[in-house]
Automatic annotation (TrEMBL), chains A, B:
Its EC number is 3.4.16.-. It is an enzyme of class 3 (hydrolase). Residues 1-15 form the signal peptide. The keyword Ribosomal protein does not apply. It comes from Paramecium tetraurelia. Belongs to the peptidase S10 family. This is Carboxypeptidase. It comes from the Eukaryota. One of its GO terms (molecular function) is serine-type carboxypeptidase activity. Keywords: Carboxypeptidase, Hydrolase, Protease, Signal. InterPro entries: AB_hydrolase_fold, Peptidase_S10, Ser_caboxypep_ser_AS.
Length: 458, 458
C-alpha cells in the first residue's frame, strides 16, 4: 500500500512513466547509494517501431536544469559504462562490483540521460536482430530516439539539451546535432555538445585512417614509446603515408609495431598509457567468465563481444548480467545478454564529422572538446591538429590563449584554449574515459562549460 | 648484559665500527620495520680532517654482494631522502611519518651506503661551517670520503662498488668515478654507475643552460603544457637561443612562462608532472613549521634551506629533526639541524660531465642511465639528446634497439635502449625520484643491470 502510494507520488512530481520507474525500495537490496528517482526502460520511436533503445534517466530535483544525453562510443559500446563508471550518480569503486556515491556526478547540475545506441548495443534491440547500420542511419535513428524521449518525458521539452560523450560518440554527437538542426520543427532546444577524446577528423577512427594513424604515432613518440630516431623517420614520411595503403607505409607501420611491441604479450593500457592494464577475472553472477580482447595497437580493431583490452568491467558484468538486476531495470526478455561492447555491422563515413562543424558553429551551438591527455586511442595530438585546422580554415579568432586551469585544491587540472565557438579543455592525467579517471576535473569542466563559469586561472 | 653481547656479536660478524652501530633495541621504539644491522656515523677522511660526512650503511647478510653508494643531488640535498623515501630497507608511507618495510629495497641485493655530501648537506659538516665548493672540489672530497669508508669498513674493500643516484648526482657520480680512475693505486673496485634523471650535458643544470632550457620546453610541449603553436616557434629559435642571454631569447622564455603559468599560484609538481603537488603541513616534533619553496619553473633556482616545491617531506622532518632520533643515529652536536636541501656556495663546471663519458667508458665501467619519463626537472628529452650525441661522436654500435620492458605482472615498465657501453632505461610513470615513484620497476632495473640479467621482453 505504501509502495503504491510512493509510485504515485513520484510519478506525480516527475510526470515520468510509472512503468519505467526503478523500484526505489530495491536500492538497498542492490546496495545502491542513491535516494532519488531513476527511470530505466525503452525509448520506442514512432517512426521506427521495430527499434527499442534502452535508457536510464536520473532526473534532478530542480526541474529547470539542462538535460544531458550521454553516449558512449565503439561503435558498439554501451552508455551504461558512462552511467556506472564515469559520471552517473552512483558508480563502481574501481575494479570492484561495489557501488559508491559519485561525489562528482554530473547529475548534480543536470538531468542525466544515458541511452544505449545504436540498437544491438547493450540492452537495446531491434525486432529482427539485424545490427547493420552506418553513421547516417545511426544519426537518423538517434534523432527518432530523442523524439521518443520527449514523448515519454514531455516536461523536459523546454529544458536546454546538451549531448555529451566520448570516443566514437565524437561521431554520434555532431551527426545527431546536425539532424536536430535539419529538423528544426521539432523544437528540440539543443544548446551544446561536449565531446571527450572523440573521433572528429578523417585522420581519426575511420577505416582509411587506420592505414597509417599518424597522430597516434606522434602521441606515442611524445610519451617515449617510440624512439626519437623512428619518430624523426615517421615525421619525414607523414605526408606520403597518411591514408596510404602502399607497401612502404605498411612496412613503416610494421616497424613501429615491432619497436613498441604493442601487439605483443605485455600489458599496456591503450586507454590510459600510465594506468594499469586492468584484467582481473570478470565473471557474471552465474560464474560465466568474460574474456578480454587481446592487447592491440588499435583496440577498435578487435571489439568482438568481448571486454576491450585493460578495461574495468568487474562491476558492470556482475550487475548487468544478473537476472534480478535486469528485472529491476525493467529489461525486456527480447534484450540480449548485456555486453560492454558488441560487434555491429557498421559502415563509417570516410569524412568523419569534421565537415559538420562549420554548420553547427554557425547555428550557435556551444561546443566543448575535451581530451584526457594520456589517452592513446583517440589522442590529444589529433584533436589539436584538427582544431588548429578548423581555426585556420574558418578564420576564427582565439578567445582564450592556451593556459593551465586547476581544481578546487589548486592542483593543476590541465590546459584550455578557446577559439570563437569552440572551447578545448585538456584534462591532465586522464585517459580515454575522462570522467572515470579524473572525476573532480571532469565535473568542474562540464559544469563551467554549461553555466559559462570561467575556469580558474589563479 | 644481553645488549653488550649483541653488540659484540654483531660487530664480530660485520667487523663494522661498534660506535656507529645503530642500537637495534630501539628499532621497535622508533617503529622501524627492520631486523638487520645498520650503521650511522661519520666518514672522516685523513686528507681533509675538518670534513665530517654523515653516512648510513645497511650491510647485507651476504658479504660478497656489491656495495652501492647512493647520492642525492641538489646541489645541497640530503641522501637520507634516498634512504628513507626511495630505495632503503625501510621508507615512509607516502606523505606520512610512518615507516614501512620496503619490499623493493635495493639492500636486498647489495650493501647500501648513503652519504650526505658535500659537507654542509644534512648532518654532514665542516669544522669552520664554510660550504664553498665546486664540482671538482666535491669530487676530490667524495673520493677522500670513499677512502674513509674503506678505512672504517675494510672488509668491503674487495666488493664491487657501484655508485648510484639521481639529479645533480649525475654530476657527483661521474666526477667521483673519474677521481677513482685517476687514483688507481687505491684499488677501489669501481664497477659501475647508475644515474637517474641526472645532469650530464651542458644543456642541463648548468648556469648557462638556464638561459634557455630547451629540453624542458620540449618535454613540456610533449606533455601539452605548451601549445603546439608556441612549440613550433620554440623549435625554430632553438639553435639561436640555447645558451644565449640575449633579449629576444629571454622574451621568448617569458612567453613560455606566461603560457604555462608555471611560476604562478597553482600547484604543479615539477618532479612528477602527473603527480600531486604534495604540500601538507610539515612540522618538526617541536612544532616548528617548515616552509615549502615556491613553485617555480626551475626548482633548482630556489632551494634555500626549504623543502623543494611539492616534495614529500613529512616523515623526514618528523624523524630527522627529532632529538632522540638524532642521538639514535649517533649525530654529533656540531651537525646542523637537518634539512632536505641546503643552500651551498657552489660553483658548477659549465661543461657539466658529458666530457668524462669517453674516458669512463674506455675503462669498462658499466653505465646505466635511467629516466623517470614524467620528470619535468631533468627530463627524458635532454637525456635522449646527449645519448644520441655520444653514440654518434664515439661511433658506438647499438646493442639493443629501443624496446619496451615490463614488470613481474607483465605491466609495461618503460623502454630501454643499449649502446655499446651504456644502457638507457626509462621508467614509465616515474618522476624525478624513480625508486620513490616506481619501486618495483626501479628494483628490477638496478638488479638486472648489476647482475647482467636480461630485461623481460615477452
Amino acid at each position: 500500500m505504501q509502495y503504491i502510494f510512493l509510485l504515485i507520488s513520484l510519478s506525480a512530481i516527475f510526470c515520468g512513466p510509472p512503468s519505467d520507474l526503478v523500484d526505489p525500495f530495491q536500492y538497498e537490496y542492490f546496495k545502491i547509494p542513491y535516494n532519488k528517482t531513476m527511470y530505466s526502460g525503452y525509448l520506442e520511436p514512432e517512426d521506427i517501431p521495430d527499434h527499442h533503445f534502452h535508457y536510464i534517466f536520473y532526473p534532478n530535483d530542480k526541474s529547470d536544469l539542462p538535460v544531458i544525453l550521454w553516449l558512449n562510443g565503439g561503435p558498439g559500446c554501451s552508455s551504461l559504462t558512462g552511467a556506472m563508471i564515469e559520471n552517473g550518480p552512483f558508480v563502481f569503486i574501481g575494479g570492484t562490483p561495489i557501488f559508491e556515491e559519485n561525489k562528482y556526478s554530473w547529475g548534480k547540475f543536470a538531468h542525466m540521460l544515458y541511452v544505449e545506441t545504436p540498437v544491438g548495443v547493450g540492452f537495446s534491440y531491434k525486432n529482427d536482430g539485424n545490427t547493420t547500420t552506418s553513421d547516417d542511419v545511426t544519426a537518423q535513428n538517434n534523432y527518432y530516439m530523442l523524439l521518443a524521449f520527449y514523448r515519454k518525458f514531455p516536461e523536459y521539452k523546454n529544458n536546454e539539451l546538451y549531448i555529451a560523450g566520448e570516443s566514437y560518440a565524437g561521431t554520434y554527437i555532431p551527426t545527431l546535432v546536425n539532424k536536430i538542426i535539419d529538423n528544426s520543427q521539432s523544437n528540440i532546444r539543443i544548446r551544446g555538445m561536449m565531446i571527450g577524446n572523440g573521433c572528429t577528423d578523417a585522420s581519426e577512427c575511420t577505416k582509411e585512417a587506420k592505414y597509417f594513424p599518424y597522430y597516434k604515432f606522434q602521441f606515442l613518440a611524445n610519451h617515449n614509446f617510440i624512439s626519437q630516431k623512428l619518430e624523426e623517420y615517421i615525421e619525414i614520411h607523414k605526408a606520403k603515408c597518411q591514408f596510404n595503403k602502399e607497401q612502404f607505409c605498411q612496412d613503416l607501420y610494421q616497424d613501429i609495431l615491432t619497436e613498441t611491441n604493442l601487439d605483443g604479450t605485455y600489458e599496456y593500457n591503450p586507454y590510459n598509457i600510465y594506468g594499469t592494464c586492468f584484467q582481473p577475472p570478470v565473471e557474471t553472477p552465474q560464474g560465466e567468465r568474460i574474456p578480454y580482447a587481446k592487447n592491440k595497437f588499435d583496440p577498435f580493431d578487435i571489439i568482438q563481444g568481448h571486454i576491450p583490452p585493460c578495461s574495468d568491467a568487474v562491476g558492470l558484468y556482475h550487475y548487468l548480467r544478473d537476472d534480478e538486476f535486469r528485472k529491476y531495470l525493467n529489461i525486456h526478455p527480447q534484450s540480449d545478454q548485456w555486453a560492454k561492447c558488441q560487434s555491429l555491422n557498421y559502415t563509417k563515413d570516410p569524412r568523419a564529422t569534421y565537415h559538420l562543424y562549420p554548420k553547427i558553429m554557425a547555428k550557435g551551438i556551444k561546443i566543448l572538446k575535451f581530451s584526457g591527455d594520456v589517452d592513446g586511442v583517440v589522442p590529444i595530438t589529433g584533436t589539436i591538429y584538427w582544431i588548429e585546422k578548423l581555426q585556420k580554415e574558418l578564420n576564427l579568432p582565439t578567445i582564450q590563449q592556451w593556459r593551465p586551469w586547476f581544481k578546487s585544491n589548486k592542483q593543476n587540472a590541465g590546459n584550455l584554449w578557446e577559439i570563437d565557438g569552440l572551447l578545448f579543455v585538456s584534462v591532465r592525467n586522464a585517459g580515454h574515459m575522462v570522467p572515470a579517471d579524473q572525476k573532480e576535473a571532469a565535473f568542474i569542466m562540464a559544469h563551467n562549460f554549461i553555466f559559462d563559469v570561467p575556469f580558474s586561472e589563479e
